[in-house]
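Posting this for the archive.
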Amino acid sequence: MKKLKAVWQSLWVDVDRRVRLGRILGFVFVTAGFMIIGFAWNGAASINFAQGQIPYLLSGGFLGLALVVTGLVLILLSTVRAERQVLTELFGDMSRLLGRNLARAQFSTNGSSDGEGMVVATQSTYHRPDCKVLQGKEGLTTVTLQQADAEGLDACRVCEPPTLPKKKEEPVSAGSETPSQ
């Protein structure tokens, strides 16, 4: 029971699994619907009079049609869910890049173009502009050290770019706290 509960909870966390499961269930429902329609047609074909054929066609036809429509809705919903996930990832990337560009516009170089304090940012790290890791990559973003620190980017271990000095936390003295009673 615990394994079943864990699988059920993992479906709600992993969007790709839900999309895949929705598509599989959709195709199973569509296939089952067409099979039921075929069985109903086959049952109606074995009877020679019209009043005996109608129950086969109505019950099998409606059930089969309902399964086909349900399967198509599941496929449509899983496609919408997959597209929404792609758009969410693109929106995240776009907002991150826009934030970098807006923050870069805040820091003025005061007419100097030497690029002092500028580093190249990737997804999770920042590098010197001449880093070997970045060779051959295109579309890289330059940011200031302050901006890279604010984004929580780690310094590259290969090129070892400059880092901002860490702020010292003031120690709390033992006598300054009031005891609670």
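The chain has four helices and four strands. Residues 107-165 form one domain.
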